[in-house]
Amino acid sequence: MSRATFKLAEETGADLHAGASSPALPMQQLWFSIQRLPWASLVILPADPETSAQEVAKALHDVGRLTMGERLRVLDARGVQLPATAPLILDMSGASPVRPAGTGWSERVLVLIDSVIARPSGIPVALAADAVVLCLTLGKTPVAAARETLKLIGAQRFVGCITIP
Questions:
Q1: Fewer CB atoms inside 10 A, N or C side of the chain?
Q2: For the chain, what is the domain count?
Protein backbone atom coordinates (compact mmCIF):
# COMPACT_ATOMS: atom_id res chain seq x y z
CA MET A 1 0.00 0.00 0.00
CA SER A 2 1.46 3.36 -0.91
CA ARG A 3 1.86 6.00 1.75
CA ALA A 4 0.30 9.40 1.44
CA THR A 5 1.70 12.67 2.58
CA PHE A 6 -0.99 14.73 4.21
CA LYS A 7 -0.37 18.45 4.00
CA LEU A 8 -3.16 20.25 5.74
CA ALA A 9 -4.16 23.89 5.57
CA GLU A 10 -3.58 25.96 8.66
CA GLU A 11 -6.74 26.25 10.69
CA THR A 12 -7.86 29.84 11.07
CA GLY A 13 -10.47 31.41 13.29
CA ALA A 14 -12.79 31.47 10.28
CA ASP A 15 -12.53 27.66 10.03
CA LEU A 16 -13.51 27.30 13.67
CA HIS A 17 -16.66 29.38 13.18
CA ALA A 18 -17.64 28.15 9.71
CA GLY A 19 -20.74 26.50 11.11
CA ALA A 20 -21.66 23.32 12.87
CA SER A 21 -22.44 21.51 9.63
CA SER A 22 -19.03 22.19 8.09
CA PRO A 23 -16.09 20.32 9.66
CA ALA A 24 -12.75 22.12 9.87
CA LEU A 25 -10.87 22.48 6.58
CA PRO A 26 -7.82 20.42 7.70
CA MET A 27 -10.05 17.46 8.55
CA GLN A 28 -11.87 17.72 5.22
CA GLN A 29 -8.51 17.73 3.41
CA LEU A 30 -7.29 14.78 5.46
CA TRP A 31 -10.45 12.78 4.74
CA PHE A 32 -10.22 13.35 0.99
CA SER A 33 -6.49 12.54 0.99
CA ILE A 34 -7.22 9.23 2.70
CA GLN A 35 -9.96 8.50 0.16
CA ARG A 36 -7.34 8.22 -2.58
CA LEU A 37 -6.06 5.08 -0.87
CA PRO A 38 -7.67 1.63 -1.00
CA TRP A 39 -9.16 0.72 2.39
CA ALA A 40 -12.32 -0.57 3.98
CA SER A 41 -11.04 -0.51 7.57
CA LEU A 42 -8.82 2.27 8.91
CA VAL A 43 -7.33 2.19 12.41
CA ILE A 44 -6.70 5.50 14.17
CA LEU A 45 -3.76 4.79 16.48
CA PRO A 46 -2.13 7.08 19.05
CA ALA A 47 1.66 6.76 19.08
CA ASP A 48 1.93 6.82 22.86
CA PRO A 49 -0.28 6.20 25.90
CA GLU A 50 -0.58 9.93 26.66
CA THR A 51 -2.05 10.82 23.25
CA SER A 52 -5.76 10.52 22.57
CA ALA A 53 -6.89 9.98 19.00
CA GLN A 54 -10.56 10.33 19.87
CA GLU A 55 -10.95 13.85 18.44
CA VAL A 56 -9.24 12.80 15.20
CA ALA A 57 -11.56 9.79 14.84
CA LYS A 58 -14.62 11.93 15.58
CA ALA A 59 -13.58 14.63 13.09
CA LEU A 60 -12.86 12.08 10.34
CA HIS A 61 -16.18 10.39 11.06
CA ASP A 62 -18.01 13.74 10.87
CA VAL A 63 -16.50 14.52 7.45
CA GLY A 64 -16.93 10.97 6.20
CA ARG A 65 -20.59 10.81 7.18
CA LEU A 66 -21.25 13.93 5.10
CA THR A 67 -19.86 12.19 2.01
CA MET A 68 -20.71 8.52 2.70
CA GLY A 69 -23.74 8.68 4.95
CA GLU A 70 -24.55 5.44 6.74
CA ARG A 71 -21.87 3.55 4.84
CA LEU A 72 -19.26 4.82 7.32
CA ARG A 73 -19.10 3.39 10.81
CA VAL A 74 -16.80 4.08 13.71
CA LEU A 75 -15.84 1.41 16.21
CA ASP A 76 -14.48 2.59 19.54
CA ALA A 77 -12.19 -0.27 20.47
CA ARG A 78 -10.30 1.52 23.21
CA GLY A 79 -9.88 -0.78 26.14
CA VAL A 80 -10.29 -3.92 24.02
CA GLN A 81 -9.07 -7.06 25.79
CA LEU A 82 -7.30 -9.82 23.88
CA PRO A 83 -10.28 -12.27 23.99
CA ALA A 84 -12.48 -9.63 22.33
CA THR A 85 -10.16 -8.95 19.39
CA ALA A 86 -11.43 -11.78 17.15
CA PRO A 87 -15.09 -10.63 17.16
CA LEU A 88 -13.94 -7.03 16.70
CA ILE A 89 -11.82 -7.98 13.69
CA LEU A 90 -14.74 -9.92 12.18
CA ASP A 91 -17.01 -6.91 12.69
CA MET A 92 -14.57 -4.41 11.17
CA SER A 93 -13.90 -6.68 8.19
CA GLY A 94 -17.60 -6.97 7.38
CA ALA A 95 -17.93 -10.60 8.40
CA SER A 96 -20.37 -9.77 11.16
CA PRO A 97 -23.59 -11.76 10.83
CA VAL A 98 -25.64 -8.60 11.50
CA ARG A 99 -25.01 -7.17 8.03
CA PRO A 100 -26.17 -9.01 4.89
CA ALA A 101 -23.35 -10.27 2.73
CA GLY A 102 -23.21 -9.74 -1.02
CA THR A 103 -25.62 -6.82 -1.17
CA GLY A 104 -23.21 -4.45 -2.92
CA TRP A 105 -23.15 -2.26 0.17
CA SER A 106 -19.64 -0.81 0.26
CA GLU A 107 -18.96 0.12 3.85
CA ARG A 108 -15.95 1.67 5.49
CA VAL A 109 -15.04 1.44 9.15
CA LEU A 110 -12.91 3.74 11.29
CA VAL A 111 -11.53 1.91 14.31
CA LEU A 112 -10.20 3.82 17.31
CA ILE A 113 -7.78 1.89 19.52
CA ASP A 114 -5.44 2.67 22.40
CA SER A 115 -1.69 2.98 22.08
CA VAL A 116 -0.28 -0.47 21.37
CA ILE A 117 2.61 0.32 23.69
CA ALA A 118 0.21 0.49 26.64
CA ARG A 119 -2.34 -2.04 25.34
CA PRO A 120 -0.76 -4.68 23.05
CA SER A 121 -4.19 -6.25 22.47
CA GLY A 122 -4.68 -3.54 19.82
CA ILE A 123 -1.86 -5.01 17.70
CA PRO A 124 -3.99 -7.75 16.05
CA VAL A 125 -6.68 -5.15 15.33
CA ALA A 126 -4.18 -2.84 13.62
CA LEU A 127 -2.67 -5.75 11.69
CA ALA A 128 -6.10 -6.87 10.48
CA ALA A 129 -7.04 -3.40 9.23
CA ASP A 130 -6.42 -2.32 5.67
CA ALA A 131 -4.58 0.81 6.81
CA VAL A 132 -3.42 2.62 9.94
CA VAL A 133 -3.05 6.34 10.67
CA LEU A 134 -0.63 7.31 13.44
CA CYS A 135 -1.51 10.22 15.75
CA LEU A 136 1.18 12.22 17.54
CA THR A 137 0.89 15.11 19.97
CA LEU A 138 3.25 17.89 18.92
CA GLY A 139 5.91 18.55 21.51
CA LYS A 140 4.73 15.72 23.78
CA THR A 141 4.91 12.38 21.96
CA PRO A 142 8.37 10.92 22.49
CA VAL A 143 10.11 9.99 19.23
CA ALA A 144 11.01 6.65 20.82
CA ALA A 145 7.31 5.87 21.36
CA ALA A 146 6.47 6.68 17.74
CA ARG A 147 9.33 4.47 16.54
CA GLU A 148 8.26 1.63 18.84
CA THR A 149 4.68 1.87 17.55
CA LEU A 150 5.91 1.74 13.94
CA LYS A 151 8.06 -1.27 14.81
CA LEU A 152 5.20 -3.12 16.56
CA ILE A 153 2.75 -2.68 13.68
CA GLY A 154 5.16 -2.52 10.75
CA ALA A 155 5.89 0.75 8.95
CA GLN A 156 4.30 -0.56 5.73
CA ARG A 157 0.87 -0.69 7.42
CA PHE A 158 0.79 3.09 7.99
CA VAL A 159 -0.69 5.39 5.36
CA GLY A 160 0.09 8.61 7.18
CA CYS A 161 0.63 10.48 10.39
CA ILE A 162 -1.54 13.16 11.99
CA THR A 163 -0.03 15.68 14.36
CA ILE A 164 -2.28 16.95 17.11
CA PRO A 165 -1.46 20.40 18.46
A1: C
A2: 1
Residue 108 C-alpha from the chain's centroid: 11
| Structural domain span for residue 23 | 13-98+106-164
Nearest by Cα to 45 from 147, 155, 149, 156:
149
Which pTM value belongs to this model? 0.81
Q: What is the pLDDT of residues 7-66, one digit of tens each?
A: 444 444 444 344 455 778 888 998 999 989 889 999 999 999 999 999 999 999 999 999
Instruction: Identify residue 129 by its one-letter amino acid code.
Output: A
> Which among 101, 111, 102 is positioned nearest to 135, based on CA atoms?
111
Looking at 16-146, which runs of residues are DSSP E strands?
41-46, 72-76, 108-112, 131-137
Amino acid at site 115 = S
